[in-house]
Amino acid sequence: MVFILWIIAVILVVSGIVSLFRGQVMWGAALIIIGLLVGPGGVSIFT
């Protein structure tokens, strides 16, 4: 389960960074924050 959360978090953060470079600042910041919350190192919403 931890590995799956880590993969989801990485995908969200990378998508957020790509969105930031495309000029979608709010959407990119939201994806990065959600990725950090979901990740096993952050405040996981599943625990």
UniProtKB/TrEMBL annotation:
Keywords (A to Z) from UniProt: Membrane, Transmembrane, Transmembrane helix
Transmembrane segment boundaries: 26-46
InterPro entries xrefs: GPGG_membr
Keyword Transmembrane helix: yes
Protein name (record): Uncharacterized protein
Species of provenance: Kribbella rubisoli
